[in-house]
Amino acid sequence: VSRQLKEEIRRGFARLEDPLAGLLAMLESSGDWKGKGHSLGYCITTELQLWMKEHPAVPQSGTKLKKLQARVLRMLSQCPANLLDPLISIYQLHTADRNCLLEHVSHLYLQGDYKEAAILSIKLKLQPDQDVEKMCTPLLLQDKANLVEDYVREYPELQSKLLQTLDTWCDPSFNIRDIMRPYQGLFRYKPEKFNRRVLSKLVFRLLERFNVDPALCPNVINQRHLRTLNYLFYKRFVEKTMTEENWAEHIQSTVGENQWLQGHLVQSLLHHCDACGVARWARHCRVPPEMLPRAVAEELQKLHVQDRVEEVTKADNYEDSKKKDYYQLPIPRENIHFLQTWEETLQCWEKVLQPGQVVGVDMEWKPPFGMVGKPHVALLQLALKDEVFLLDLPQLLKQAEAEGDKEKLPRFIQMLYSDAAITKLGYGMSGDLSSLAATCSALKDTEKQMQGVVDLLAVDKQVDRQSPECSHEDRGVRQPEKGLSLLVQHVLGKPLDKTEQLSNWEKRPLREKQILYAASDAYCLLEIYERLCKDPKSFSLGPDLTENLMGKQSKKPRAKKQLNKQEAPSPSGQECQGPRTEPSCPPAPISPREFSVVCDNMLQGLGRYLRCLGVDVWLLNNEDDHRKAAEIARQEGRVILTSGLPYQTLRSQVGEGRCFSVNCSAKAKEQALQVLRHFNVQVSLTDIFSRCQ
């Protein structure tokens, strides 16, 4: 709105004896304000609202105001949403007679203007005096769940009433058509959106949003537990990807002492097991004998503890056969540490929070079968080259709270993720961090602050699946690999054993298989990273893995700013290439005899070429860890020559300018020229072949 128009509007108000009546007369006689957007009527109304704040004597009261309020009410159902708040404020509708307001909303409802009735009720805070089921039913039939949520947002009692109503409709014995029948001629009627599945999702969304006790909705909770039960049977008896111990834990926690679910458990067992098997599981899940068929009840009486011997033997044989098919942890069992106290954890952090450290990070949580809200992390795994730490997060958080220092754990985790000198490896880290934030609210901004992070999910989309490393024997009817397991298979030759993935990670103590699975999940990231750094070409990856991995961890614009910080200077040799980054004052010229370097193991060709020119070169062997280059550089004052991801790790371990990233795709001669130019090394004829080759 132009300044001139605003001034003209305000002069008009000043000339009017009754600005409120004048505005109303203008709106009633003009159709301009009924359209969407900022009409002239909208501009005049909002200017009056501002003008009245500057002239507090203008607002009226008494009979005259009541008459104006009655006229405004008739207009509200027709006016656009952006005019509602200004008109309610100007004409003080919150002070109007409540019965009149309720009567007006009721009139809108009876006319079939359900959306308008609900919006006006929300604006005027009339919900406590209305029937929540009556107001919300037509809105749900019109697929306006968001408006229903707004309607009950500020009223816990109405939230509970609405959820109980929705839960009643989700009872399988309830005829949902009885609800729909009176509204069949409804405008924008969407009966396909009004079914138990959609309503169940809405119930879970509202339970989470309003933090209501799920026990209020037994029908919806039971139905979800039943779906979980069916899924567990599928995983165990059809897909056969879940161990017996793992399956038993979940069945027991899902069914509990709920007799309705116990009945479904027995029926499912009868489809997949003989009478003896049904009896054994019925005893395990404490199913009352009177719920069992006669043949199963008879078997139950015969059961003895020795019946498990055969199963255990089978399980042992199965474990032995699995070792040759799946990725095996290359470190001894005693190097896997399960940490439940802060004394142990502090020792872990001293090792992890070292500049130049490379850490495989993973998290586990109880599968969200029937769970409301985000799952909470039960285990945080941190893998180093020689050991793995498994942090019992619930126990550590509980201990920190008891000691009056809730921020202890978040502080350490934020230090880890925000330190650019520590390389963190993960797979699908965004999901992990989301659950971490749900576990501890102080960590909700971790993803925005993280630096030095490599998400291997990005490289998973680029690895050449046809590379020779991908060849493997057909392993029978096992389910095809996916996710991290597939990446491990392609890069390291064997997939991960994921039979413990859906374990109950909150149950303590953890089983030995769970501990080994959790450690493997984190440690394999280190081995993938090392293999890709050493031999990117075998997987059709570019030489600059930092661009491939670090540069694609997030597509969100807000994360780009953080990424740019951690990528400057670029670890692909651009720190020193081209005029835009070339130092304005080059270093003083030196001879090859004065220049000593240590070449990382992917640059052996460059190292041999530099040695031909008289440079003092130390070459890392193929089996050497990249970090050995930093040790040699510090001890002997050498410059590190490296490429790709190791640059991120190594540059933080030596002085400024003592680590240089070379373009790995260039030929040895081009690489050598790049190095010589950057360090201003002047080669003479007498330098060539001056060192032993």
UniProtKB/TrEMBL annotation:
The answer to whether the entry has keyword tRNA-binding is no
Quote one Gene Ontology molecular function term.
nucleic acid binding
Under SMART domains, the record lists: 35EXOc (SM00474)
Query: Region (Disordered) spans which residues?
Result: 544-587
An example of a Pfam family matching this protein is Mut7-C
* Biased composition regions of type Basic residues, renumbered to the chain: 553-563
What this protein is called in its record is MUT7 Exonuclease
Domain of life of the source? Eukaryota
Domain 3'-5' exonuclease, which positions? Answer: 336-537
Q: Where is the composition biased (Polar residues)?
A: 565-575
GO biological process entries = nucleobase-containing compound metabolic process
| Keywords in alphabetical order | Exonuclease, Hydrolase, Nuclease
